[in-house]
Amino acid sequence: MTGSGYNTEKGIYVAFCVDNGAGKTPTPCVGGVDMSGESGASAWISSNPPSYGKGLAEPYGGSAHKGTFSVKLTVRAKDANTDCTASGVTCAVITRNDHTRGGDQSQTVRIPVTFASGGASTGTGTGGSGASATPGASTTAPATTTGGTPSSGTADGSMASTGSGLALPVGLTAAGLVAAGTGAWFWARRRRTGSAGASRAS
After folding, report:
1. The pTM is what?
2. 100 Rama sector, left if φ>0, alpha if ψ -120 to 50, beta otherwise
3. Contact predicate 90/19, CB 8 Å
4. Regarding beta strands 132-133 and 2-6, do their DSSP bridges make them parallel or antiparallel, or are they unpaired?
5. Cα(79)–Cα(63) distance, rounded to whole angstroms?
6. For residue 102, what are the contacts with CB-CB under 8 A and spacing of at least 6?
7. Cβ contact 77:85 at 8 Å
8. How does pLDDT run across 118-173, given as a tens digit for each residue?
């Protein structure tokens, strides 16, 4: 799996996960989180990981908003918790921002993968240079596996919703509440100051 055009200031995960739709985090991922970096179920790409991620995260190639990566993933149709061959379940090779930017979906890219009926649950494959991803662009990539017959996938290319549609109303409401609280504080202070001055005059 290769990728280009990523913001190197934001770490990403590359994994094979259930695609829950645009604006929703792709989860759970088949094979879980690869905490050792040895199972091949997922990869962590970050040029500036937290201290506990040094040696586990792979740095980006390139710089700024031209970050690149190349990883190999083990793709299985199912594990103990997830079955990508089940009816109604859509799975994809994905990139998404890592846990340090949990709600930021700006680098989420989905490359759908399907398995033929009866696909072996232990099928593995490597994306190698055959699959590629670019955040914010439409990408067609072959999904390569064995143990099932995958179809080619197209990343939807859409940026996931970050809740920015709510930002303005919520921000205005918050500003209104702050203004009302400030006004009430000044009114109460003025009232105390005024009644203290009136009692001194008597």
Report:
1. 0.60
2. alpha
3. yes
4. parallel
5. 36
6. none
7. yes
8. 544 333 333 333 566 666 543 334 343 333 333 333 333 333 333 334 444 555 55
